[in-house]
Amino acid sequence: MFATFMEVLDTTVVNVSLPHIAGSLSASVDEAAWALTSYLVANAVILPMTGWLASFFGRKRMLMGAVMGFTLASFACGLAPSLSMLIFFRIIQGATGGALQPLSQAVMLEAFPPSDRGKAMAFWGLGIVVAPMLGPVIGGWLTDNYSWRWVFYINLPVGLASLFMTKWFIFDPPYLRRAERGIDYWGIGMLALGVGALQVVLDKGQEDDWFESHFIAILAAVAFLALVAFIIRELRTRDPVVHLRVFKDRTYAAGVFLMTVLGFVLYASLLLVPVFLQTLLGYPALAAGIAMAPRGLGSFLMMPVVGTVMGRFDPRKVLAVGIVGAAWTLYALSRLNLQAGYWDIFWPQFIQGVSLAMIFVPLTTATMDPIPREEMGNATSMFNLMRNLGGSFGIAAGTTYLFRRQQLHTHLLGAFVSDLNPRVQVMRRGIETAMVAHGSDPVTAVRQSYVSIWGLVQRQSAMQGFVDTFLALAIVFLLVLPLLLVMKKPKHQAKGMPGH
C-alpha cells in the first residue's frame, strides 16, 4: 500500500503547486501544466504492459525497480533546475509509477485466499481512495510553508520504506516464472503511441477547444488508428504484450467498465468541487483542500467495515448500495447555491466517501474473482488502466460540459439585463446612488452599475453550470446499475458465509 499511496498521491499533489512551479522556473502556467500531462501520458503507457513486464523480469524485481525508479525520479524532480528537466524527470516518474498500482494489487490478491480478498482489498484500498483527497491539502501546505520542491521530496521516506518492506516480505509465487517467449515490439509501439496520444488529447482538448485545434484532431486520429491496430495485433499474435482475451469473461468485462465509470465520476468531481469552492464561494486553496477532507474521512472509516462484513452479503448488493449512495451525493451537490455553508459541503462529501468504499472493495473482489492467478498481473493492469483513462475522460468531459453550460446560462440570463426590465432599473439605480454617495462621478457610476450587474449574471451562470454538471454525473452513476445484473455472484464465498 505504501507504493500505491505514493503513486496516487503524486497524481494530485502537484496540481496546486503549478503557479509556484511556473514562477520559479520562468514559465507560464500552461507550459508548467506539461509537468502534469507528461506524468499522465507515461503512466498510461506503462500501465497495460505491467503484467507482461512482471512476467518478463519477475514481479518482485519489477516492483522493487519501479519503487526505486519512482523514488529517485521524485528526488530529481525536486532538484530540477529548469522546466524541461522537470518534465523529463516527470516522464520517468510516470513510467515507473505506472507499474506500482497493478503490481501491488496483484501481490495483495495473490497473498490472500479468495475468501479473504475482500478484507485485504479494503485495507489496501485505503491508499487508493484517501490519497487523492490528501494530495491537494498536502501540496498546498508544503508549497505555502516551504517550497514546491518539497512536494517531490516527501516521496523519499515513503519510497525507501516501501523498498525495504518489499525486499523483506514479498516473494514471487512458484507459478510465476520468467516467460520464455518473444517480445511484441510492434504491440508495445502501437500501445505507447495510441495511449500516449489519447492521454494528451484528453488532457489538452478543452484548453485548445477540442477539434478546432489541428494538433488535437491529428492526435485523436493517431490514437484511434494506433489503438485499433493494437487490438487487432494483440488478438492475432502468439506473444501478446496484453492478453485481451481476459475480457471474454463477462464478470471481468462488466467490472472493468464499472471501474472506468467510477474513475470518470470520481476524478471529475475531485476536480470540480475545489474549483467550485475557490471560484464561487471564495475558499483559499488550502481551505478548499481541507473542505474536501470529509470524503477521505468517510472512506477511511468505512473501508475496514466493508471488508469485515463482505462475507455476509452478496458483493453485487453492496455495490448497488454504494452506487446509489454516490449518485445521491452528487445530486445533493447539484442542489447547492451561492449561499452554501460548510456543512452543506461536508455531508455530501462524507457520504460520498462512505459510498466509494462500498463500491471499490466489492467491485475489485467480484471483478477479480474469476481470474486465474497466472493472469492476475495482466488483469489488474487493465483494471487500473481503465480507471485512470476513465478519470481522464471524466475530467475532460466534466470541464467541457461545465464550460458549455456556463455559456448557455450566461446567454439565457444575460437576455434579462435590459433597461426595459424594471428589476434591472431598480438595481442599477441603487448601485449608481451608492457610488455617487461615495464620491464617484455620475458617468462612472452608470458604467459601474452595468459592470456589477453583469458580474452577478456571470456568477449565477457559473453556479448553474456546476449544478448541471453535478446532476449529469449523478445520472451517469445510475445508468450503470443494470451492469450489476451482468456480473456473476463470486464463486469464492468468504468465511462465515452461509453454505461455506
Break the fold down into its secondary structure elements and pairings.
Blueprint: H1 2-13, H2 18-24, H3 29-32, H4 34-46, H5 50-57, H6 59-79, H7 83-97, H8 100-111, H9 117-145, H10 150-153, H11 155-169, H12 185-204, H13 214-236, H14 250-279, H15 285-291, H16 293-309, H17 315-333, H18 342-368, H19 376-414, H20 422-437, H21 442-479
Helix pairs in contact: 1-9, 4-7, 4-12, 5-6, 5-19, 6-7, 6-11, 8-19, 9-15, 9-16, 9-18, 12-13, 12-19, 14-15, 14-18, 14-19, 14-21, 16-18, 17-18, 17-21, 19-21, 20-21
Description:
- The protein has 500 residues and is mostly helical.
- It has two domains: 1-183, Growth Hormone, Chain: A (Up-down Bundle); 250-500, Growth Hormone, Chain: A.
- It has 21 helices and no strands.
- It has helices at residues 2-13, 18-24, 29-32, 34-46, 50-57, 59-79, 83-97, 100-111, 117-145, 150-153, 155-169, 185-204, 214-236, 250-279, 285-291, 293-309, 315-333, 342-368, 376-414, 422-437, 442-479.
- The longest helix is centred in the last third of the chain and has 39 residues, at 376-414.
- The relative contact order is 0.12.
- The model is unreliable at 494-500 (pLDDT under 50).
List keywords for this structure.
single chain; 500 residues; mainly alpha; Growth Hormone, Chain: A; 2 domains; 0% strand; globular; disordered C terminus
Quick synopsis:
The chain is mostly helical and 500 residues long.
